[in-house]
Amino acid sequence: MPLGPVDVYIIGFPGNKFSGEIVPAILEQVDKGVIRVIDILFVVKDADGTVATLAIEDLGPEGAAFVDVEVMQPGALNEEDADEISEDLPENSSALLIAYENTWMQDLVGAFARADAIVIDQIRIPAVVVNEVVSA
After folding, report:
1. Which residue, of 10, 38, 52, 64, is most buried by count of CB atoms within 10 Å of its CB?
2. pLDDT tens sequence across 64-81
């Protein structure tokens, strides 16, 4: 079966504060079969501008729940990704990079292949933008 499209989300945490709200939401989508997590990477920039990547187990109690997230290909997100993100990351903040497969698209991707069709482009409109437009 072909893989569905992969998205990489970059989620910022000003002040390096983690609330623990994200992991249950990720696990719910995994359990429903909507996504499959390919990899997770944490990038932290301290107040002096020093950048580090953290393993899940290094996050302390706030990040402990991430241990429950099964990743398909650890290392898919790497130092090169961290370097690219760190350029725009404000001091004293963190970013979570999460790459996931949209498993809900697998059947459709298979249909594209059987029809000899090709995806020319894919555009993702962020939820914040959609909600602003709908609310206006």
Report:
1. 38
2. 677 778 888 888 999 899
